[in-house]
Amino acid sequence: MLPTLALFSVLTALTATVSAVPCVQFDSSWNLYAFGGSEDVKLGANTTWAQPQVSPLSTSGRPPWTGTNSQCILSQTNNALYVVGGDSSDLSKIYVYNFASDSWSTQTTSGAPSDLGNSRSSSVLDHDTNVIYTLTTSSGLYQLDMSSVTNSAQSSALAWEAVENSSFSVDGYSVTATQAANHIFYFGVPNTAAGSANVFVVHYAYFQPDAQAFSGSSQFPDTAGQAISIPTSSDSVPYSMVFVPNDFSNTYIATHWTDLGDYSKTDDAPFATNLINSTQTLAAPTSQDKTASYAASPYDLVQIDSTGAIYYYANPVNGDYTVSSGGSWQKLSYAVTGGSTGSSNSTTSAAPSGSASASGSAASGSAGASRTASGSTSASASGSAASASGSSSPSSGAPRGAARGDLLGLAIGVVALGASMLL
Protein backbone atom coordinates (compact mmCIF):
# COMPACT_ATOMS: atom_id res chain seq x y z
CA MET A 1 0.00 0.00 0.00
CA LEU A 2 2.81 2.42 0.79
CA PRO A 3 4.24 2.34 -2.76
CA THR A 4 0.75 3.06 -4.07
CA LEU A 5 0.34 6.02 -1.74
CA ALA A 6 3.73 7.29 -2.88
CA LEU A 7 2.60 7.06 -6.49
CA PHE A 8 -0.52 9.04 -5.76
CA SER A 9 1.62 11.64 -4.00
CA VAL A 10 3.63 11.95 -7.21
CA LEU A 11 0.37 12.35 -9.13
CA THR A 12 -0.74 15.12 -6.78
CA ALA A 13 2.53 16.95 -7.24
CA LEU A 14 2.29 16.63 -11.02
CA THR A 15 -1.25 17.92 -11.23
CA ALA A 16 -0.33 20.81 -8.97
CA THR A 17 2.42 21.94 -11.34
CA VAL A 18 0.76 21.56 -14.71
CA SER A 19 -1.44 24.65 -14.37
CA ALA A 20 0.90 27.32 -13.05
CA VAL A 21 2.87 29.65 -15.33
CA PRO A 22 5.34 32.20 -13.92
CA CYS A 23 5.68 35.82 -14.96
CA VAL A 24 8.11 38.72 -14.56
CA GLN A 25 7.57 42.45 -14.14
CA PHE A 26 9.34 45.64 -13.07
CA ASP A 27 8.36 48.22 -10.50
CA SER A 28 8.43 51.93 -11.38
CA SER A 29 12.05 52.19 -10.20
CA TRP A 30 12.96 49.37 -12.61
CA ASN A 31 13.68 46.65 -10.09
CA LEU A 32 12.89 43.22 -11.53
CA TYR A 33 10.45 40.79 -9.87
CA ALA A 34 9.51 37.18 -10.60
CA PHE A 35 6.11 35.74 -9.68
CA GLY A 36 4.36 32.39 -9.69
CA GLY A 37 6.86 29.95 -8.28
CA SER A 38 6.90 28.52 -4.77
CA GLU A 39 7.56 32.12 -3.74
CA ASP A 40 7.39 35.54 -5.41
CA VAL A 41 10.71 37.39 -5.33
CA LYS A 42 12.41 40.72 -5.93
CA LEU A 43 15.55 40.37 -8.05
CA GLY A 44 16.64 44.01 -7.95
CA ALA A 45 18.08 46.47 -10.46
CA ASN A 46 19.91 45.35 -13.60
CA THR A 47 23.25 46.29 -12.03
CA THR A 48 22.84 43.32 -9.65
CA TRP A 49 21.71 40.66 -12.11
CA ALA A 50 25.16 39.07 -12.41
CA GLN A 51 24.57 37.91 -8.83
CA PRO A 52 20.90 38.63 -8.04
CA GLN A 53 20.11 39.55 -4.44
CA VAL A 54 16.88 37.56 -4.09
CA SER A 55 14.31 38.92 -1.62
CA PRO A 56 11.10 36.90 -1.03
CA LEU A 57 7.85 38.88 -1.13
CA SER A 58 4.83 38.74 1.12
CA THR A 59 2.76 35.58 0.80
CA SER A 60 -0.36 37.03 2.44
CA GLY A 61 -3.09 37.36 -0.17
CA ARG A 62 -0.89 36.37 -3.11
CA PRO A 63 -2.59 34.75 -6.11
CA PRO A 64 -2.71 30.95 -6.21
CA TRP A 65 -1.01 31.20 -9.61
CA THR A 66 -3.17 28.47 -11.13
CA GLY A 67 -4.17 30.29 -14.33
CA THR A 68 -2.71 29.06 -17.61
CA ASN A 69 -2.84 32.53 -19.23
CA SER A 70 -2.04 34.77 -16.28
CA GLN A 71 -0.73 38.27 -17.01
CA CYS A 72 1.37 40.51 -14.75
CA ILE A 73 0.70 44.11 -15.80
CA LEU A 74 2.57 47.17 -14.49
CA SER A 75 0.63 50.31 -13.59
CA GLN A 76 3.67 52.55 -13.82
CA THR A 77 2.03 55.71 -12.48
CA ASN A 78 0.76 53.85 -9.40
CA ASN A 79 3.82 51.63 -8.89
CA ALA A 80 1.51 48.63 -8.76
CA LEU A 81 1.13 45.23 -10.37
CA TYR A 82 -2.23 43.96 -11.64
CA VAL A 83 -2.46 40.19 -12.06
CA VAL A 84 -5.14 39.09 -14.51
CA GLY A 85 -6.04 35.39 -14.67
CA GLY A 86 -3.98 34.34 -11.66
CA ASP A 87 -6.73 32.15 -10.19
CA SER A 88 -8.19 29.48 -12.48
CA SER A 89 -11.18 29.05 -10.15
CA ASP A 90 -12.20 32.70 -10.64
CA LEU A 91 -10.60 34.47 -13.60
CA SER A 92 -12.58 37.63 -12.88
CA LYS A 93 -10.46 38.46 -9.80
CA ILE A 94 -7.70 41.04 -10.23
CA TYR A 95 -4.84 40.66 -7.75
CA VAL A 96 -3.13 43.95 -6.90
CA TYR A 97 0.44 44.07 -5.62
CA ASN A 98 1.73 47.31 -4.08
CA PHE A 99 5.46 47.38 -4.79
CA ALA A 100 6.14 50.08 -2.18
CA SER A 101 4.44 48.30 0.74
CA ASP A 102 5.05 44.68 -0.36
CA SER A 103 1.36 43.88 0.03
CA TRP A 104 -1.34 42.03 -1.92
CA SER A 105 -5.04 42.79 -2.18
CA THR A 106 -7.78 41.24 -4.28
CA GLN A 107 -10.16 43.27 -6.41
CA THR A 108 -13.47 41.56 -7.08
CA THR A 109 -15.29 42.31 -10.31
CA SER A 110 -18.70 41.71 -11.81
CA GLY A 111 -19.99 41.09 -15.31
CA ALA A 112 -16.77 39.52 -16.57
CA PRO A 113 -17.02 37.85 -19.99
CA SER A 114 -17.12 34.05 -19.89
CA ASP A 115 -14.06 33.76 -22.13
CA LEU A 116 -11.83 36.17 -20.22
CA GLY A 117 -8.12 35.40 -20.56
CA ASN A 118 -7.77 34.06 -24.09
CA SER A 119 -3.96 34.37 -24.00
CA ARG A 120 -1.04 35.84 -22.07
CA SER A 121 -1.31 39.01 -24.17
CA SER A 122 -5.08 39.49 -24.29
CA SER A 123 -5.34 42.26 -21.65
CA VAL A 124 -3.81 45.73 -21.98
CA LEU A 125 -3.70 48.52 -19.36
CA ASP A 126 -4.16 51.96 -20.90
CA HIS A 127 -1.40 54.15 -19.51
CA ASP A 128 -3.38 57.40 -19.18
CA THR A 129 -6.74 56.15 -17.88
CA ASN A 130 -5.71 53.05 -15.88
CA VAL A 131 -8.39 51.05 -17.68
CA ILE A 132 -7.84 47.39 -18.60
CA TYR A 133 -9.01 46.41 -22.08
CA THR A 134 -9.52 42.72 -22.86
CA LEU A 135 -10.46 41.37 -26.26
CA THR A 136 -12.46 38.15 -26.08
CA THR A 137 -13.09 35.80 -28.97
CA SER A 138 -16.82 35.35 -28.39
CA SER A 139 -18.17 38.57 -26.92
CA GLY A 140 -16.02 41.44 -28.19
CA LEU A 141 -13.90 44.00 -26.34
CA TYR A 142 -14.43 44.61 -22.62
CA GLN A 143 -13.03 47.24 -20.28
CA LEU A 144 -12.45 47.41 -16.52
CA ASP A 145 -11.85 50.84 -15.00
CA MET A 146 -9.06 50.53 -12.41
CA SER A 147 -8.67 54.29 -11.86
CA SER A 148 -10.19 54.05 -8.36
CA VAL A 149 -7.93 51.16 -7.39
CA THR A 150 -4.44 52.52 -8.09
CA ASN A 151 -2.27 50.32 -5.78
CA SER A 152 -4.84 48.69 -3.47
CA ALA A 153 -8.15 46.96 -4.07
CA GLN A 154 -11.37 48.67 -3.07
CA SER A 155 -14.09 46.94 -1.09
CA SER A 156 -16.81 47.10 -3.74
CA ALA A 157 -16.72 45.13 -6.96
CA LEU A 158 -15.71 46.81 -10.22
CA ALA A 159 -17.90 46.17 -13.24
CA TRP A 160 -16.61 44.90 -16.57
CA GLU A 161 -18.24 46.82 -19.43
CA ALA A 162 -18.73 45.74 -23.02
CA VAL A 163 -17.16 48.24 -25.43
CA GLU A 164 -17.80 46.95 -28.96
CA ASN A 165 -17.04 44.12 -31.32
CA SER A 166 -13.77 44.23 -33.21
CA SER A 167 -13.59 45.35 -36.83
CA PHE A 168 -11.83 42.09 -37.68
CA SER A 169 -12.66 38.42 -37.24
CA VAL A 170 -11.34 36.81 -34.06
CA ASP A 171 -12.29 33.25 -34.97
CA GLY A 172 -9.54 31.05 -33.53
CA TYR A 173 -7.43 34.09 -32.66
CA SER A 174 -4.92 33.84 -29.80
CA VAL A 175 -5.11 37.51 -28.85
CA THR A 176 -1.73 39.27 -29.02
CA ALA A 177 -2.16 42.89 -27.93
CA THR A 178 -0.17 45.79 -26.55
CA GLN A 179 -0.23 49.59 -26.52
CA ALA A 180 1.65 52.48 -28.09
CA ALA A 181 0.58 56.15 -28.05
CA ASN A 182 -2.92 55.47 -26.70
CA HIS A 183 -3.63 52.93 -29.40
CA ILE A 184 -3.92 49.19 -28.77
CA PHE A 185 -2.37 47.05 -31.49
CA TYR A 186 -3.44 43.49 -32.28
CA PHE A 187 -0.70 41.40 -33.87
CA GLY A 188 -1.28 38.15 -35.72
CA VAL A 189 -4.97 38.62 -36.52
CA PRO A 190 -5.76 35.90 -39.09
CA ASN A 191 -5.62 37.05 -42.71
CA THR A 192 -3.93 40.35 -41.92
CA ALA A 193 -1.02 41.30 -44.17
CA ALA A 194 2.44 40.57 -42.78
CA GLY A 195 3.89 43.73 -41.24
CA SER A 196 0.45 45.09 -40.33
CA ALA A 197 -1.50 45.16 -37.06
CA ASN A 198 -5.11 45.97 -36.26
CA VAL A 199 -5.83 48.98 -34.06
CA PHE A 200 -8.22 50.05 -31.30
CA VAL A 201 -8.13 53.82 -30.65
CA VAL A 202 -8.54 54.19 -26.89
CA HIS A 203 -9.49 57.86 -26.63
CA TYR A 204 -12.21 57.53 -29.28
CA ALA A 205 -13.23 53.98 -28.30
CA TYR A 206 -13.36 52.50 -31.77
CA PHE A 207 -11.58 49.94 -33.92
CA GLN A 208 -9.98 51.26 -37.09
CA PRO A 209 -11.59 49.63 -40.11
CA ASP A 210 -8.22 48.78 -41.64
CA ALA A 211 -4.98 47.44 -40.22
CA GLN A 212 -1.96 49.70 -39.71
CA ALA A 213 1.02 48.92 -41.92
CA PHE A 214 4.54 49.21 -40.52
CA SER A 215 7.60 49.86 -42.67
CA GLY A 216 10.96 48.12 -42.31
CA SER A 217 13.23 45.64 -44.03
CA SER A 218 11.93 42.77 -41.87
CA GLN A 219 8.15 42.50 -41.67
CA PHE A 220 6.69 40.74 -38.68
CA PRO A 221 4.65 37.67 -39.66
CA ASP A 222 0.89 37.27 -39.47
CA THR A 223 1.01 34.91 -36.53
CA ALA A 224 0.07 35.22 -32.88
CA GLY A 225 2.63 35.34 -30.07
CA GLN A 226 3.38 37.62 -27.12
CA ALA A 227 3.45 41.42 -27.08
CA ILE A 228 4.36 44.10 -24.53
CA SER A 229 5.07 47.83 -24.46
CA ILE A 230 8.38 49.38 -23.49
CA PRO A 231 7.65 52.02 -20.81
CA THR A 232 9.32 55.42 -20.82
CA SER A 233 11.50 56.66 -17.99
CA SER A 234 9.39 59.84 -17.88
CA ASP A 235 6.13 57.89 -17.31
CA SER A 236 4.62 59.12 -20.57
CA VAL A 237 2.63 56.87 -22.88
CA PRO A 238 4.81 54.16 -24.41
CA TYR A 239 5.84 54.42 -28.05
CA SER A 240 7.75 51.16 -28.60
CA MET A 241 6.15 47.73 -28.71
CA VAL A 242 7.83 44.33 -28.48
CA PHE A 243 6.31 41.51 -30.51
CA VAL A 244 7.64 37.95 -30.24
CA PRO A 245 5.73 35.79 -32.76
CA ASN A 246 5.18 32.09 -32.25
CA ASP A 247 7.52 31.33 -35.17
CA PHE A 248 10.37 33.07 -33.27
CA SER A 249 11.63 34.61 -36.51
CA ASN A 250 12.87 37.66 -34.57
CA THR A 251 12.07 39.91 -31.66
CA TYR A 252 10.27 42.78 -33.40
CA ILE A 253 10.31 46.37 -32.13
CA ALA A 254 7.39 48.28 -33.64
CA THR A 255 7.28 52.04 -33.06
CA HIS A 256 4.21 54.23 -33.19
CA TRP A 257 3.29 57.84 -32.49
CA THR A 258 0.23 59.98 -33.17
CA ASP A 259 -0.71 63.56 -32.40
CA LEU A 260 -4.09 62.96 -30.76
CA GLY A 261 -5.40 66.34 -31.84
CA ASP A 262 -4.29 66.13 -35.47
CA TYR A 263 -3.26 62.84 -37.05
CA SER A 264 -1.55 64.67 -39.92
CA LYS A 265 0.92 66.45 -37.60
CA THR A 266 4.34 64.92 -37.13
CA ASP A 267 6.51 67.78 -35.85
CA ASP A 268 6.03 66.85 -32.17
CA ALA A 269 7.10 63.22 -32.49
CA PRO A 270 9.84 62.15 -30.06
CA PHE A 271 11.96 60.51 -32.78
CA ALA A 272 12.89 60.80 -36.46
CA THR A 273 10.07 60.77 -38.97
CA ASN A 274 11.27 57.59 -40.67
CA LEU A 275 10.66 55.68 -37.43
CA ILE A 276 6.94 56.46 -37.28
CA ASN A 277 5.06 53.21 -37.91
CA SER A 278 8.29 51.28 -38.46
CA THR A 279 9.61 47.86 -37.51
CA GLN A 280 13.11 47.02 -36.30
CA THR A 281 14.44 43.66 -35.17
CA LEU A 282 16.48 42.07 -32.41
CA ALA A 283 17.47 38.43 -32.01
CA ALA A 284 14.73 35.96 -31.17
CA PRO A 285 14.72 34.81 -27.52
CA THR A 286 17.04 31.95 -26.67
CA SER A 287 14.20 30.04 -25.05
CA GLN A 288 11.62 29.62 -27.77
CA ASP A 289 8.66 28.99 -25.51
CA LYS A 290 5.22 30.03 -26.76
CA THR A 291 3.90 30.23 -23.19
CA ALA A 292 6.70 32.48 -21.92
CA SER A 293 5.99 35.80 -20.21
CA TYR A 294 7.77 39.07 -21.05
CA ALA A 295 8.37 42.40 -19.35
CA ALA A 296 10.27 45.57 -20.21
CA SER A 297 11.83 48.53 -18.49
CA PRO A 298 13.26 51.52 -20.38
CA TYR A 299 16.59 49.65 -20.26
CA ASP A 300 15.95 45.90 -20.54
CA LEU A 301 13.72 43.22 -22.03
CA VAL A 302 13.10 40.17 -19.85
CA GLN A 303 11.59 36.77 -20.58
CA ILE A 304 10.63 34.01 -18.16
CA ASP A 305 9.78 30.69 -19.77
CA SER A 306 7.47 27.99 -18.47
CA THR A 307 10.36 26.19 -16.73
CA GLY A 308 11.14 29.32 -14.67
CA ALA A 309 14.35 30.19 -16.54
CA ILE A 310 14.87 33.96 -16.90
CA TYR A 311 16.59 35.67 -19.84
CA TYR A 312 17.26 39.36 -20.45
CA TYR A 313 18.36 41.62 -23.28
CA ALA A 314 20.23 44.71 -22.04
CA ASN A 315 19.77 48.11 -23.70
CA PRO A 316 17.71 46.88 -26.65
CA VAL A 317 16.62 50.36 -27.79
CA ASN A 318 18.63 53.58 -27.90
CA GLY A 319 17.56 57.03 -26.74
CA ASP A 320 16.68 57.96 -30.32
CA TYR A 321 14.34 54.94 -30.59
CA THR A 322 16.59 52.96 -32.92
CA VAL A 323 17.52 49.44 -31.84
CA SER A 324 20.97 48.69 -30.48
CA SER A 325 23.34 46.55 -32.48
CA GLY A 326 25.40 43.62 -31.25
CA GLY A 327 23.29 42.71 -28.24
CA SER A 328 22.06 39.26 -27.24
CA TRP A 329 19.83 37.46 -24.77
CA GLN A 330 21.60 36.50 -21.54
CA LYS A 331 20.47 33.98 -18.94
CA LEU A 332 20.02 35.05 -15.33
CA SER A 333 21.64 32.80 -12.75
CA TYR A 334 18.38 32.69 -10.77
CA ALA A 335 15.38 30.60 -11.87
CA VAL A 336 11.85 30.37 -10.50
CA THR A 337 11.06 26.98 -8.98
CA GLY A 338 7.91 25.31 -7.74
CA GLY A 339 5.73 26.42 -10.64
CA SER A 340 5.27 24.80 -14.04
CA THR A 341 7.83 22.19 -15.00
CA GLY A 342 7.58 22.88 -18.68
CA SER A 343 5.30 22.65 -21.67
CA SER A 344 5.01 20.95 -25.02
CA ASN A 345 5.06 24.46 -26.49
CA SER A 346 8.58 24.99 -25.19
CA THR A 347 11.79 24.41 -27.10
CA THR A 348 15.14 25.91 -26.27
CA SER A 349 17.73 26.80 -28.86
CA ALA A 350 20.62 29.19 -29.24
CA ALA A 351 19.59 32.56 -30.61
CA PRO A 352 21.74 34.69 -32.89
CA SER A 353 23.23 37.91 -31.59
CA GLY A 354 20.74 40.75 -31.46
CA SER A 355 21.71 43.16 -34.17
CA ALA A 356 19.51 45.93 -35.47
CA SER A 357 17.49 45.87 -38.63
CA ALA A 358 14.95 48.18 -40.06
CA SER A 359 13.44 51.56 -39.51
CA GLY A 360 12.68 52.71 -43.07
CA SER A 361 10.24 55.34 -44.21
CA ALA A 362 7.00 56.11 -42.45
CA ALA A 363 4.21 53.77 -43.26
CA SER A 364 0.71 54.88 -43.93
CA GLY A 365 -1.59 54.90 -40.96
CA SER A 366 -3.56 56.94 -38.51
CA ALA A 367 -1.14 56.08 -35.74
CA GLY A 368 2.59 56.06 -35.21
CA ALA A 369 5.42 55.92 -32.68
CA SER A 370 8.09 54.24 -30.58
CA ARG A 371 9.58 54.00 -27.10
CA THR A 372 12.96 52.93 -26.03
CA ALA A 373 14.78 51.24 -23.26
CA SER A 374 16.48 54.42 -22.22
CA GLY A 375 13.69 56.92 -22.16
CA SER A 376 15.20 59.87 -23.99
CA THR A 377 13.96 61.63 -27.06
CA SER A 378 15.01 62.65 -30.51
CA ALA A 379 13.17 64.69 -33.10
CA SER A 380 10.59 64.83 -35.87
CA ALA A 381 8.21 62.29 -37.39
CA SER A 382 5.82 61.67 -40.19
CA GLY A 383 2.72 59.57 -40.06
CA SER A 384 -0.57 59.20 -41.86
CA ALA A 385 -3.49 56.99 -42.69
CA ALA A 386 -4.23 53.35 -41.97
CA SER A 387 -3.67 50.54 -44.42
CA ALA A 388 -4.10 46.77 -44.74
CA SER A 389 -7.14 44.82 -43.70
CA GLY A 390 -8.02 42.58 -40.82
CA SER A 391 -10.43 39.84 -41.70
CA SER A 392 -11.54 36.37 -40.88
CA SER A 393 -10.32 32.80 -40.84
CA PRO A 394 -8.68 30.41 -38.47
CA SER A 395 -5.98 31.55 -36.15
CA SER A 396 -2.30 31.10 -36.74
CA GLY A 397 -1.68 31.08 -32.99
CA ALA A 398 -0.84 27.83 -31.31
CA PRO A 399 -3.60 26.42 -29.09
CA ARG A 400 -2.84 27.06 -25.44
CA GLY A 401 -4.59 23.88 -24.34
CA ALA A 402 -1.84 21.82 -25.95
CA ALA A 403 0.63 22.81 -23.23
CA ARG A 404 1.87 20.27 -20.75
CA GLY A 405 0.37 17.27 -22.55
CA ASP A 406 3.38 15.13 -21.74
CA LEU A 407 2.95 15.74 -18.01
CA LEU A 408 -0.71 14.89 -18.16
CA GLY A 409 0.10 11.68 -19.99
CA LEU A 410 2.61 10.81 -17.30
CA ALA A 411 0.03 11.53 -14.61
CA ILE A 412 -2.47 9.19 -16.28
CA GLY A 413 0.22 6.52 -16.42
CA VAL A 414 0.85 6.93 -12.70
CA VAL A 415 -2.87 6.47 -11.97
CA ALA A 416 -2.97 3.29 -14.08
CA LEU A 417 0.09 1.88 -12.38
CA GLY A 418 -1.28 2.71 -8.94
CA ALA A 419 -4.60 1.05 -9.75
CA SER A 420 -2.85 -2.12 -10.95
CA MET A 421 -0.92 -2.31 -7.67
CA LEU A 422 -4.15 -2.13 -5.69
CA LEU A 423 -5.66 -5.06 -7.57
Characterize this entry briefly:
The chain has 423 residues and is mainly β.
Descriptive account of the structure:
This protein has 423 residues and is mainly beta. The protein has helices at residues 2-17, 405-422, and strands at residues 23-26, 32-35, 41-44, 55-56, 71-75, 80-84, 94-98, 103-107, 109-110, 123-125, 131-135, 141-145, 158-159, 161-164, 177-180, 183-186, 196-201, 206-207, 212-213, 225-230, 240-245, 251-255, 278-282, 287-289, 293-296, 300-304, 309-314, 329-335, 346-348. The strands form eight sheets. Strands 15, 16, 17, 18 and 19 form a five-stranded antiparallel β-sheet that branches. InterPro entries: Kelch-typ_b-propeller, Kelch_1. Residues 1-20 form the signal peptide.
Output the keywords:
disordered N terminus; 4-stranded antiparallel beta sheet; mainly beta; 423 residues; disordered C terminus; Kelch_1; Kelch-typ_b-propeller
Write the layout of secondary structure elements.
Layout: H1 2-17, E1 23-26, E2 32-35, E3 41-44, E4 55-56, E5 71-75, E6 80-84, E7 94-98, E8 103-107, E9 109-110, E10 123-125, E11 131-135, E12 141-145, E13 158-159, E14 161-164, E15 177-180, E16 183-186, E17 196-201, E18 206-207, E19 212-213, E20 225-230, E21 240-245, E22 251-255, E23 278-282, E24 287-289, E25 293-296, E26 300-304, E27 309-314, E28 329-335, E29 346-348, H2 405-422
Helix pairs in contact: 1-2
Mean pLDDT across all amino acids: 82
Count of beta strands:
29
Strand content: 25-35%
**Largest beta-sheet details:** 5 strands, antiparallel
